[in-house]
Design goal:
Length: 397
């Protein structure tokens, strides 16, 4: 529990005197994810943890006792006007909503708050105001969308947002909702999150910034070199995100000065490509918004196909689709409908009517990765049509 591969176990040397607050939001299926998170989180002298779990109003929560078995840090049930201390974990009581102000926790009866199931949002809004860029939000397994609005407040104040990979979540509603905002820094399993948090805190850009800002000429040169090697233009990306990714690459290359790293980019095109990959945040998955895809499958596609004559061409354009899952999700739904549409003639030998699927912004290694992401870890992923993705992808040649 108190060890972590690749992480220095003396966190005071990592984040010095900064006090970061890590707020963990979870609902259905979240307990196992919380345990996995703390099993991989070493003791930290400068981090405090807040757990906002949707709890039953009818029974006393055992979360304090359960979490205590997975960490050497002290675990408390939160109380009104309780001061946040470092190297401690605080758990929201049932029937309460919680906020933070000036480093103090404040509790209110849940019945006093009209918004249903918004305990995570409420806390994150207050945390963003109180800790600014020292706030870290973690969204784990759960149904619904609680936390989605709160993480946007965290990002607006310069904080960090980590979300559980939906493929690892027992209930993927909350992770999918958070990811859909585009405000997520990393999508990881709970076991990977502690290492990412420490990596982010190590990336504090003391050697990237000068007088609080990054050298505009060096940053423009970085954009140019990355664009030359990858074809992607990152000028419109948030500077704070770019700085964190630069810090990560500099640390991995053992460099402390930004101009030295720019020199490396000039002499090493592969490093420019790796930096481009780090800049990209993959917030996509197959059939990510299930309700939307069900409507498309049930209403939109049949209507479009019905208007087509035999041998007509049907083109679907999907742009800015990261690794292409959205484009291929639509292609699969169209393929399924064409097979099910009885008025369409079957082709000799049972050949599929769908001939080709492609996605703008999905090429090279990204396109090749689709075959691997279609059925990660060998686990079947089910579409709204109850069809395994594996049947739509051939293995690597």
């Amino acid at each position: 529990m108190d060890t972590l591969n690749g992480i220095d176990k003396q966190p005071n040397e990592i984040i010095k005197n900064d006090h970061y607050i890590v707020a963990i939001g979870a609902s259905a299926g979240g307990l196992e994810a919380i345990h996995d998170f703390f099993d991989h989180m070493p003791d930290s002298g400068n981090l405090s943890f807040i757990i906002i779990q949707h709890l039953s109003s009818d029974h006393k929560s055992l979360l304090v006792e359960l979490v205590s078995k997975h960490t050497h840090m002290r675990v408390f049930e939160a109380e009104h006007n309780m001061e946040l201390r470092r190297q401690c974990v605080y758990v929201i009581p049932n029937n309460k909503v919680m906020t933070v102000k000036d480093g103090m926790l404040h509790l209110a009866n849940k019945s006093d708050i009209r918004a249903p199931n918004a305990a995570i949002d409420i806390f994150l809004h207050s945390l963003a105001k109180d800790k600014k860029n020292k706030a870290i939000a973690v969204i784990l397994s759960g149904t619904g969308s609680d936390g989605t609005r709160g993480i946007q407040s965290i990002k607006a104040e310069g904080g960090i947002v980590l979300v559980q990979d939906p493929l690892t979540a027992k209930f993927d509603g909350m992770p999918h909702s958070a990811i859909a905002t585009g405000k997520v820094d990393s999508i990881l399993s709970p076991q990977q999150m502690p290492e990412e948090i420490y990596a982010i805190l190590k990336e504090t850009p003391v050697h990237i910034l000068r007088n609080g800002t990054i050298d505009a000429h060096l940053l423009d040169e970085i954009y140019r070199l990355v664009s030359k090697s990858s074809g992607f233009d990152f000028n419109q990306y948030k500077t704070a995100t770019i700085i964190r990714r630069l810090g990560k690459r500099m640390m991995q290359n053992g460099l402390t000065e930004l101009d030295d790293y720019v020199h490396l980019l000039h002499t090493n095109e592969q490093e420019a490509r790796e930096l481009s990959k780090d800049f990209l945040i993959n917030v996509t998955s197959f059939f990510r918004d299930k309700q939307a895809y069900e409507i498309i499958a049930r209403k939109v596609i049949p209507s479009i196909v019905h208007q087509k004559a035999e041998n007509d061409t049907l083109k679907v354009w999907v742009i800015a689709c990261s690794t292409g899952e959205e484009a291929y999700s639509l292609a699969i739904l169209i393929d399924q409908h064409l097979h099910a549409d009885q008025r369409l003639p079957r082709r000799r030998g049972g050949a599929r009517p769908l001939r080709r699927a492609g996605a703008l912004g999905c090429s090279g290694p990204r396109a090749a990765a689709l075959r691997r992401t279609a059925d990660p870890g060998g686990r079947a992923v089910i579409t709204p049509q109850n069809c395994s993705l594996r049947s739509h992808f051939r293995g690597d040649p």
